[in-house]
Amino acid sequence: MYSMTELIKKLQKNRTLTKNEFIKLLRCEGADMELLRKTAEAERIGIYGKDVYIRGLIEFTNFCRQDCLYCGIRRSNKNCRRFRLTDGEILSCCDEGYRLGFRTFVLQGGEDPYFSDDKICALIEQIKHKYPDCALTLSIGEKPKQSYRRFFDSGADRFLLRHETADKAHYEMLHPSSQSYDNRMRCLRDLKEIGYQVGCGFMVGSPYQTDECLAEDLIFLSEFKPHMIGIGPFIHHSDTVFRDYPDGTLDMTLRLLSIIRVMMPSVLLPATTALATIDPKGREKGILAGANVVMPNLSPVGVRKDYSLYDNKVCTGEESAQCMNCLSRRIESIGYKIAVSRGDSLV
Length: 347
Description:
Oligomer: single chain
CATH topology: TIM Barrel
């Protein structure tokens, strides 16, 4: 039986553990958790230095055909005030972002049938033509492989699609029967095969999640080897069936960030908006735990609150891309600095 210190060293050497070993490591506390954090920070600095990459997030539609049980913009939420940005509004967000120093734009939206493949391709081509030195990331959900290929051929560089959980039974507890675990995994495989820099990830502390579920997630990540991993605490939304479930915790999220960094030293790992929502210093704590990406919001101020995946989402202050000086100062206060570059994956 390994001690916590030995488990951390084993993970650092082998870049994976058994399921039971991951479960044990997920329960580390105190000095062991600090050793894990320091190990993760050293791995991150060894590859990326003190640079923190910024992505300009553009939430362009909150219409969605899906009905995920945890999500505030799910199809059946009649209290959600819906919006769609025009091409002109999206390009204006990019204009402002470029002026502020962003060299990656993330187009994120619900699975909105209005935005056909033709519309998405035209939008990609406009952005890439105007900003050829920028990377473009899509986060628009499950699509057929031919759609993903068209987006890639039009110039999209990256695609974010959280797998949410690598445990099929758990996936089915979080989604209606119309949504398939197998299809979600098919999408991720297709994206990687096409040539995208692929991001996946999961919620920490989602309903019915166990340490065994999280261990399965870590094993999946070690085998799939994504370029980016987005994790953040589950935060309930008052208009979903999980409104009364407890939120995920800061400690477990930080612990997982550190485990992932030690396991996959070259991965791009965001300190998410959800982390900043549950703790005023959540973003900084995430960076110190091994994260190296932040995603300030470039969306028009008037629609930010309507892109409500969960309650009390941070959408003002340092979360706003317009307050880059504030964000820079906060990151510099912990010894890191914002890097003005595309920040491509080294995986």
